Structures are given as structure tokens and as C-alpha cells.
Amino acid sequence: MAEALEAPFERPDVGFNDLPGWTWVGTYGGHFLQCDLLAGFEHGFFTRQWQGRQPEELAGEISAGVSVHRTRQVHGGEVLAARDAERGPWPEADGLRSDGGGQSLWVCGADCTPVLIVDPAGGRVAACHAGWRGVVARIVPAAIEALVADGARREQLLVALGPAVHGIRYQVERSVTLQVAAAMEADASGPMPPGALADLERCGALLLDPAPGRDRLDIRRATALQLTRLGMVPERIALCPLCTVAEPSLFHSWRRDGVKAVQWSGVVSQA
Fold first, then answer.
1. pLDDT of residue 167
2. Is residue 183 in a domain?
3. pTM, to two decimals
4. Residue-by-residue DSSP string for the chain
């Protein structure tokens, strides 16, 4: 069983006590990050220290479920039941929801947001990969609705948004911003509602960029706004302050390095 570290290990520009609500955990295999809000559920956000090790191996590091479930991520909005993704060839999807006990659900990313959702009352869990295309496709609201359809109560769910690129380091074209703004509403296919851009600004998801026709976009904050629009309260949503681009010794980053490499994140339902 993993135990919380009692002393800091080498990390650039990040003090050991600078992450309120988050805890670094040490095992014989390395260190990973846990969200205090998800206490009671075995889960982890892994770093590049774990490069080369697959989810089946990492599951043992967090005392995870007996079966590992994953997908081939395509930046879409589909959420599958775990039983549909328990062996290769891995199906195309960007979200998984538990449909049995002892299941370990895995997503990966290298700037996109790894999202873990738990239902403390029923033991249900979900895991999503959410880049800007996933936000536009409303992947996280889809996972929430899938858990609710399975019997969870929306107001009892807890959500952890893991390490991802910070908005100040994520420049996008205005066309991307407009798609994200429109996706804040349940009917993302309709016209963008008045004030949608202002809503993104108020929540910190939309930042100014000096380049014409460009914006700085914080996908995690946009995802959090989607969740509050579903009726979830901010106190049940945790947003990790670590930026994958800004921490090269901790995280892979496509935006920083242009290299295809990922870190894993996972969560498992209570048996």
C-alpha cells in the first residue's frame, strides 16, 4: 500500500507544501499525485518518472482493481462501459465508466486534462481524457450523465481535474475559443449564447493574448465551468495547479517538446 511521503523529493519550482488539496505519494516504484477530494478511492496522477511502464504494472502501485480498462483516445466525446474496454485491440473512446467492482479505469495525456470522477455513495467511477476537442464534444458531462443514468446522484459526485497545460501557456486560434464557449451549454450544436465568451473570462478559462485572432485558453477551467452548468458545486471539483508545460522534470508535454509521450492517470472503483 502506498504511503504519503514525509519529505520532499526533487521537483522544480514546486514546494512540497504548495499543493493544498493534493498529496504526493511514494512507493518503491516512484511517486504519484493524489487528490484529497477523492480520498477513499484508489487513484493516481502519474509523472514522467513512470515512463515505459504500462497501466497493468501501475495498477499494483496504487493497490488498484483486478482488471485494467483503457481505450485508444481520439479526442472525442464517447464514454464506454469498462467491460467494453478490457483487452486489446483497445476501442476508440475518450471516457470510461465502471460497470462492476474491482475495475481500474485509465486515461493518459501530455497536456490534455485527465479527469477522474467518483461516486462516494455508490462506488462508481469514471475517467476521461479532455483536450479542447473533448470539451467541445462535452466528454466530461457525458461521463457525469452516464454515472447518473447508472444510479449515481449528481450532487454527490466528486471530480478531480489533473495536471494539464495552464491557460497562460496554451495559445489557440479564436475559432477554437468560440467552439469551446458554445460547448458550455447542453445544446452545443445551437448558436453560441450571448455572454458565452464573458463567462469564460470570468471563470479564468479565457485569457488575453497579444497576437491578433489568438487567445489563451485554460481547458481545466472551461471543464469546471461545464460542470457547474450541470449543477455541481465548485467545492466538489478539484483543479490541480500543476502545469505540464511548466514542469519538464515532472511531465511530458506535446506543446513544450513536440514529442509523443504521455503520463498515465487512473482511478478504481471500490470493490
1. 95
2. no
3. 0.91
4. --EE-SS----TT--TT--TTEEEEEETTEEEEEEGGGTTS-EEEE-GGGTT--HHHHHHHTT--SEEE--B--SS--EEEGGGSSSSSPPB-SEEE--STTEEEEEEESSSEEEEEE-TTT--EEEEEE-HHHHHTTHHHHHHHHHHHTT--GGG-EEEE-SB--GGG-EEEHHHHHHHHHTTSS-TTSPPPTTHHHHHHHTTSEE--SSTTEEEE-HHHHHHHHHHHTT--GGGEEE---BTTT-TTT---HHHH-----EEEEEE---
